[in-house]
Amino acid sequence: MADFTYDLGDDGVAIITWDLPGKSMNVLSLDGSALLSEMIDRALSDDAVKGIVLTSGKDSFAAGMDLNVLAGLRNSSDNPAQSIFDFTMNGHAMMRKIERAGMDPKTLRGGKPIVAALPGTALGIGLEIPLACHRIIAADDPKARIGLPEIMVGIFPGGGGTTRIVRKVGLMAASPHLLEGKTYAPDKARAAGLIDEVVPADQLLARAREWVLNATDADIVKPWDQKGYKMPGGTPYHPAGFMTFVGAAAMVHGRTMGVYPAAKALLSAAYEGALVPFDTALKIEARWFTKVLLNPSSSAMIRSLFVNKGALEKGANRPEAPDQSVRKVGVIGAGMMGAGIAYVAANAGIDVVLIDQKQDAADRGKSYSEGILDKGIQRRKVTEDKKEQVLGRITATTDYAALEGCDLVVEAVFEDPKIKADVTRAVEAATGPDCIFATNTSTLPISDLAKASARPEQFIGIHFFSPVDKMMLVEIIRGKETGDRAVAKALDFVRQIRKTPIVVNDARFFYANRCIIPYINEGIRMVGEGVAPALVENAAKLVGLPLGPLQLVDETSIDLGVKIAKATRAAMGDAYPDGAVDEVLFWLADQERMGRKSNAGFYAYDDAGKRQGLWDGLAVQYPTADEQPELSEVQHRLLFAQVLEAVRALEEGVLTDIREGDVGAILGWGFAPWSGGPFSWLDILGAERAVEICDDLAARHGPRFTAPDLLRDIASKSDTFYGRFTSADQAA
Ligand code: NAD
């Protein structure tokens, strides 16, 4: 079966239906693109065809380009720039063919009307092709998403979307669609000018046919092909247009700190494209698109945020085991984490038993779900019906007997080994022999906690991040005795709640916290040394880290930092390396500045809890030194503190797959997404250069920056992490 089918009706309307065999969503492949082009030729050259409807055989139109194709083009030939440019220009030629539809280029008469009929979601190239059609009609499915989200994975719309949207709505109005990658439900997409019409789903094809049969010559000529076309909002030659570009350039820089090549390239394509005729603008768009695809940052982002994230979600590291989908989950502890876990599970259609010590605590945990659902209703994303269904799935109770029939129980009680051991025993007494027990501990070794279990092969760590409903990463931790079925269960659960899993082995702080803590510590250490706190925070942001280390510790709380420091010191004894950090941290705790939750921390907060500037009392206790380090020095310290920990985690076998290390870092703590993650960043930088920097930092700041043997070895062989640790297809 082919990606597209062609069907000519008695009324002279050719229906081209996109229906990728064996897939739930359409994505455009090289073969698919060639076939579509052939079908358009066939319809345009057949006198019996009066017009064309392009639609989909699925309940969505298309999810976009198959990004594996783009990754493949980059790697496949001696001249990847030429391959990507030619591929992009071929796409433009096909879409231009749709747009001109066989009309006489002088009189603009005689073309055949082509309408895109979208049954649902249309993203990326799945909207760019419709944008070349003469009308876009969508079914009124409120769950459908329509837009151009390419910027989110480090590229920009290069299938004519940038040029067409800017010319359709003007640069100012195009900004949220292109620069922010916003997607919309059909009615909002129509209001934003992205599509033309929304109709009930059962009338979609009839309405498309009707439009095609009644369209006039004038209906099918795009504004930019008409004489006297003026770009809405003005071109950059026009004073208003010029100001728009000045503003947009500043906004892009402010949002991206200049580290995302796709945002800059998009702006360049839009600016330069606005100065020239339409077909030249498409060529400019293709040039910038090629440049972005060849940029190592964009390649790394596509690899981590699309290819590898997708592979992990599909179970790339799932052990062989029959389907372990969860039917009924128990959640013990209805505090901040337990309430969140109960919500995401119930929202995914799983029955939940939510247990706390007191009924009112359990009820409070359940009402957390109610709060989220109510907000969804206010934003018209959730219906009353849906709210009732989700809440109906959560039983809030103190009675462990209600756990009967649970196939998974997740424990999220206080971070205290004794309480966790009691809970483990009580749960195992109340559940059947097949039930898997998971702990959400953030710091306690899984293998130690498993000692309380009579079934340690069924004991596992499932580490959620806070807030559970927003954070997409789930870290699954295999204890020494954890069996394959428990891992499969955890992975199937994560798939059901539509999050992204990584599977790591048990060690202090697992993977994510192991890397975050040294980052925070390095920032605090610098404050103690007299580095200006604003320099520390801005250095982090300028390299694309979403939160500076001081803001991050304010958000997670100073007392948690103190608690972790004390526990780590107790475990490590004399080898404990972070005394200089603790001096600052403990002093802040003594001042009762516990971070955001106490409205006082490294930052000052107003009475309403809004973060103000850095707290000026810091400078009294830790005066800033007369001589400040270079920005790059501060950035290197902050980045290497994290990435060296990631390398050590790989060396020690905590991480077994660098793809998980990269995806986990971006989704878990926002590690510079432009870099593709710590291992991608080291590959971009080059291992030799990384070792040089480490040697320099270690000589001046101490052995925590000593390059791990693995990094040295990769450097000495001029190798890369992706070259060494992934197979050719994984490294795409
Ligand atoms: P919390 O204090 O908000 O909630 C803990 C809940 O457990 C409370 O409602 C408490 O009444 C209940 N509880 C205590 N003993 C119990 C028992 N014997 N039986 C039933 N319920 C009991 O804590 P939290 O922030 O939700 O953290 C819970 C766990 O998740 C901890 O292990 C923590 O380390 C881990 N964790 C926390 C975060 C975070 O950011 N807060 C992130 C990841 C993991």
Helical residue percent band: 40-55%
Global geometry = globular
- The number of E-state strands comes to 21
Ligands, ions, cofactors: nicotinamide-adenine-dinucleotide
Which structural class best describes the helix and strand composition? alpha/beta
Largest sheet: 8 strands, mixed
Strand order of the largest sheet: 14-13-12-15-16-17-18-19
On the 0 to 100 scale, the average pLDDT is: 94
Spatial extent as radius of gyration = 28 Å
* SS strand fraction: 5-15%
Distance between the termini: 27 Å
Total number of helical segments? 31
Low-confidence stretches: none
The gist of it:
This protein is of the alpha/beta class and 732 residues long.
Describe the 3D structure:
By secondary structure, this protein is an alpha/beta fold. The strands form five sheets. The protein has an eight-stranded mixed β-sheet with strand order 14-13-12-15-16-17-18-19, with helices on both faces. It has a six-stranded mixed β-sheet with strand order 1-2-4-6-8-11, with helices on both faces. A hairpin with a 5-residue loop joins strand 20 and strand 21. It is globular and about 85 Å long. The model has no long low-confidence stretch (mean pLDDT 94). The chain binds nicotinamide-adenine-dinucleotide (NAD). Nicotinamide-adenine-dinucleotide (NAD) binds next to helix 13, helix 16 and strand 17.
Secondary structure elements and their pairing?
Elements: E1 4-8, E2 13-18, E3 27-28, H1 30-45, E4 51-56, E5 64-65, H2 67-76, H3 80-100, E6 114-118, E7 122-123, H4 125-132, E8 135-139, E9 146-147, H5 161-169, H6 171-178, E10 183-184, H7 186-191, E11 197-199, H8 204-214, H9 239-256, H10 261-274, H11 278-294, H12 296-313, E12 328-332, H13 336-347, E13 351-355, H14 359-378, H15 384-392, E14 394-397, E15 408-411, H16 417-430, E16 436-439, H17 446-449, E17 459-464, E18 473-478, H18 484-496, E19 500-505, H19 512-529, H20 533-542, H21 549-556, H22 558-572, H23 579-590, E20 603-605, E21 611-614, H24 617-621, H25 631-651, H26 658-669, H27 678-685, H28 687-701, H29 709-716, H30 721-725, H31 728-731
Parallel strand pairs: 2-4, 3-5, 4-6, 6-8, 7-9, 8-11, 12-13, 12-15, 13-14, 15-16, 16-17, 18-19
Antiparallel strand pairs: 1-2, 9-10, 17-18, 20-21
Helix pairs in contact: 1-3, 2-3, 3-11, 5-6, 5-10, 9-10, 10-11, 12-26, 13-14, 14-15, 19-21, 19-23, 19-25, 20-25, 22-23, 27-28, 28-29
Bound molecules: nicotinamide-adenine-dinucleotide.
